[in-house]
Structures are given as C-alpha cells and as structure tokens.
Amino acid sequence: MESIFHEKQEGSLCAQHCLNNLLQGEYFSPVELSSIAHQLDEEERMRMAEGGVTSEDYRTFLQQPSGNMDDSGFFSIQVISNALKVWGLELILFNSPEYQRLRIDPINERSFICNYKEHWFTVRKLGKQWFNLNSLLTGPELISDTYLALFLAQLQQEGYSIFVVKGDLPDCEADQLLQMVRVQQMHRPKLIGEELAQLKEQRVQKTDLEHVLEANDGSGTLDADEEDLQRALALSRQEIDLEDEEADLRRAIQLSMQGTSRNICQDSPQTSGTHLTSEELRKRREAYFEKQQQQQQQQDPPGHPCEKPNTSSGALDSDLGDAMSEEDMLQAAVTMSLETVRSNFKTEGKK
Predict the structure, then answer these.
(1) Where is this region: Disordered (predicted)?
(2) What is residue 202's three-state secondary structure?
(3) DSSP states of 37-101 as a string?
C-alpha cells in the first residue's frame, strides 16, 4: 500500500487529485489546470464571436462566469479530458448507449473516473487488484474483482457519472510491484472528516483524562485525610448526640420529678401550691414520728418491751437532717400530709 500514490483532499482541488492519483504522480498543479481552463474559455469565446460580437448571445456569454473553473478550485470534465489528451488518454461515458453495446466487463478495463456534485475521484487497477483512490479517503481502498461491478453499479444508483479511461497509462512503481505480489487490507480507510472527528474526540478524551489525572496527582493523602476527618466528625457528632440525649434525659427526669411534686402538692390541702418552710417541715416531721411511735406502742402486746428513743426531738431532727436528703425530706412531708388528709376524710365519714 505504501507504494501507491494517493493525494488527499485539499480545498476543492479534487480534479487535480483525481488526475494525479490516476497517473500515480504529481503531474498536474492548479496552475497548469487553470491554464487549460483559460484556453478552453478562449476557444469558447472565439466560437461565440463568430455569430457577431454585437449579438445578444455573445454579450450574455461574456457576462457569465467561466464554466471550466471557479475560484474554489473546481475544474470541469473538459479540463480533465484535455489534460489526459497530453498522455494520449480518452474518456468514454460508462453508461452511454455506445459503450453499453460493447458489453465490456468492467474488470477488463484499467481505470475509471467518477464524478458526483463536482467531486472527482479515480478507481484504478494496479497490478492485478483494483483500488478506490478517492482523495476524501485517508488511504487507498482495496476493491475485489467480484465487488467491482457492484461498486460501480452502486455509484450509478447514487447519481455518479462514470467515465472509462481508454489508453495506455504511464508506468508506475506501484503497478510494477503489485504485478508480483497481492496485498491484503485488514481495515478499510475512513473518510478524512471521520478520521478528524475521531482524532478530535480522542484528543478531548485524552485531555479529560489528563485533567482527571492531574486532579488526582498527590491527592491520595488528601483523600485519606478527608476520610479520617469525616470519620472524626461522625464520631464527634455521635458523642454530641449522646451528650444531648443524656442531657435531655436528665431534664426529662427533673421535669417529671418537679411535675410529680407539683401534682402531689396540689392534691394536698395543706400545701395548696405553696412551698413549705423549714420550720413547718420540722414540725410536721416531729408530729409524724410521734404519731408513728404512738401507733407502734398500740400495736405492741402488753409486756413487750418497747424501745424508747434516747434522744430529744431536736437531736432527732439533727440526725434526720443529716441522714435524709432534701428530696427524702420532701417526700416524707408529702406522705405525712396525705395521711393527715386521709384521717380527716375518715373522721368526716364517721360523722
């Protein structure tokens, strides 16, 4: 494949690429093809002038642009045909009635020139194999003998004009080499636009990958540190949550105790929502324990020794004050008040 000459598309110079790929060398340049186009324009002008330089047709012809070339680099079939005459080559329309009557098998030809919408390209036999030398491809495309007829028929169906190149083509290195060996093509060449799009996509993907790699360079430690930080924050939040739960629990217990105390005090006629002073509390404790002592003496059988306190009420208050907490003292006072209320209810019920 490396020995095959293949010009790739530049601008709109497909006619130049078509001719050079057919002849397998840099035989024509845009300047030379432009010279042929100007010569054709001059010949056409002279023929139009034969009808009179003052005629309407001649003035109209002069106002029209050239039909053999334009500023983009397009050249007409007349330019291509005249360029091939220098080499003794002739173009015949492949699907013309004259050629079809010859019933020549395409495989027996040597080359074809194809055109569609002002694009020209060559299909040529090199050695014993056919190649599509379209300048829009990234390289020569191998065409099998069995596929050649189908390939040309497909081009005709798509609207291509196909010309058979008649005459002896100049010798070339690729033709001589491929006479001795046959080539195989594993992958068909792509269109230049497809290759450029693929290369662009690959560059974009490579750039994105490089950005990702650059972003990750040296960030392994940062990621580990971030994970440790997140773990520490999670543990800290758990500890804070536990502390908050414990604080809420303590507050709930305290409120519950306060609520119970308030409810009990509200149920008791003695307190009626007021706080007991320490003196009142001492007096009620003293009365409570004296009443307990009297009840104990009444329950004990006769003759049973009864222990009597060896301390005064003041000493008892002192000892109890030390042994009992404030909550115990409050509970004892509430209990005593409740018993007093019950006793009053019993007395009123007997009446």
Answers:
(1) 288-329
(2) helix
(3) HHHHHHHHHHHHHTT-TTSHHHHHHHHSPPSSB-TTS-B-HHHHHHHHHTTT-EEEETTSHHHHH
Strands 90-93 and 129-132: unpaired
Residue 213 token pair? 């790699």
106 CB contacts (<8 Å, ≥6 apart)? 112, 148, 149, 152
Of the pLDDT bands very low, low, confident and very high (cuts 50, 70, 90), residue 66 is: confident
Sheet with 111-116: list strands edge to edge. Answer: 90-93, 161-166, 111-116, 119-126, 129-132, 141-143
Residue 315 pLDDT grade (very low, low, confident, very high; cuts 50, 70, 90): very low
Identify residue 296 by its one-letter amino acid code: Q
pLDDT in tens, 72-86: 888 999 999 999 999
Burial class (CB in 10 A: 0-12, 13-18, 19+), 115: buried
> Which active-site residues does the annotation give?
14, 119, 134
Q: Give how far the C-alpha of residue 276 lies from the chain's centroid of Cα atoms, to the nearest Å.
A: 76
Question: Where is 21: in which H helix or E strand?
Answer: helix 14-23
Name the residue type at position 293. Answer: Q
Mean pLDDT is highest, among 16-20, 64-68, 234-238, for 16-20
SS3 243: helix
